[in-house]
Each structure stands twice: as C-alpha cells, then as structure tokens.
Amino acid sequence: MAKSSVRWTEEQLRCLFDLLREALKQLQRPLEHRDFFAITEAVNRRLGGTVNSSGVQFHSKGSHTMHTFVLKARKAEYEILERSVLGG
Question: Which member of 47, 53, 59, 73 has the greatest number of CB atoms within 10 A?
Fold first, then answer.
C-alpha cells in the first residue's frame, strides 16, 4: 500500500498535542494504548470537516492509527511533551 501524502496542518497538530497534554495532566502517567480511544474521539470531533495541508478533508482516524501516529511518526515531539508535563 502506498504511503499517504496527506499531511496534518500545524493547527491540526496543535489540537492533537493540546489533547495529549490534557490527557497527561489528568492521568499523571505516560499514555497507554487504551487512552487513545478517548483522545481519538476528541480529535475526530474537533478536526472533522477541516482540510489537511494537501487540501484533503480530514478523515476520522481509529485509535490504533492515532496511537501509532503519535508514538512513531511524532515520537520525539510526544516524548518532549511527556517530560514537560510529567517531569523526568
């Protein structure tokens, strides 16, 4: 399968990371796979109808896809966020 060329906008990424920050603050621990159900639901609600940087409408994501995106494609950014919220 070809890799998607759809890229998140800075605003969309900011929304995602704001939600991740809030989850980390509330849970007071690193996020686990199960936490991404609620995060993904919130992302889909907030970003539904927006357009990605390539001009393609944002499509709802699944929690596994979101988990993989955050912990692989955006791993360095997530780790910085996690340290800033939880310390360490």
Answer: 47
